[in-house]
Design brief:
alpha/beta; seven-stranded mixed β-sheet; three-stranded mixed β-sheet; 14 strands; 28% helix
Amino acid sequence: MTDLKVASFFSGLGGMDLGICGNFIYLNKKYKKNAVSIVYAMDFDKPICNIYNANFKHDCHHQDITKLDESDVPKHDILLGGFPCQSFSVSAQNPPRLGFKDKRGTLFFEMCRILKHHQPRFFVAENVKGLLSANNKKAFPLILREFERSGYFVKYKVLNAANFGVPQKRERVFIIGFKSECDFNKFSFPEPVLTDEFVSINRVLEPEHLVDKKYYFSERAVAGLKATKNYRIMNKGRAQDIDGPSNTVSAHLAKVSLNSTDPVLYINNRYRMYTPREVARIQSFPENFALTESKTVNYKALGNAVAPVVMWHIMQAINKVDKI
């Protein structure tokens, strides 16, 4: 069987890429190798490319996609891309059109440009659930329309990582494009593996005696929290129930505070943040995945990543298209 060739854009540290390739162990479970080979990967952030390159045999190119000639991208069967979405707007035209507030808003169109040129059999795009409601729910239909205009039949669904054995409540919208209407009709998104009892973060936390003191909040920070109403309800600095899945980890974890919206831990009467390795586990990266950069860069890369286990299950669903 010939491997499907994959081109990966906005690759980050490689969550989608690891998931689509498979051949890793997470929480004592083997996620089998898929018949794919990555022929191209790129990201704009050089330090994050360094993490990727420490973990894969092929290179992630440090590249500005706006300056990338589409003919320099090798032919491929699947295009991957978790495109940035912070800057989308809907311009006041009739009919309304998708616009952008700054340069980052153009990057989605770059992905469509490459799709139009190469016309791969499939594409997989990922984004935050909030994309569905962006711009008063006007942006997402236009995004789907742009994908369709690129030559694709499109399906989308919100998947929660907790449903697939990941110790994190992480909802993301996955958009799958199909060049063939036959493939489109055959495809179904993966069904949840877990629906009631989820994997707890307690399974992935470091023993407390091994956690460096730099991850603990100071007495001054705790005193500041106690002086606010949030101390009783913790509706901002969210102390996690370690017997359940974590709230969503984000790219802001390097700056997490007890009054932030990011999850924190309260264990043995002490507050602390997650370590980068704990975040990697919460995101379903295997133990041998190297975190080679600074604490700040590792947090950013991990918080922006796609959970590899979720991407692996999506690839299983794509594999079924050929077998039906």
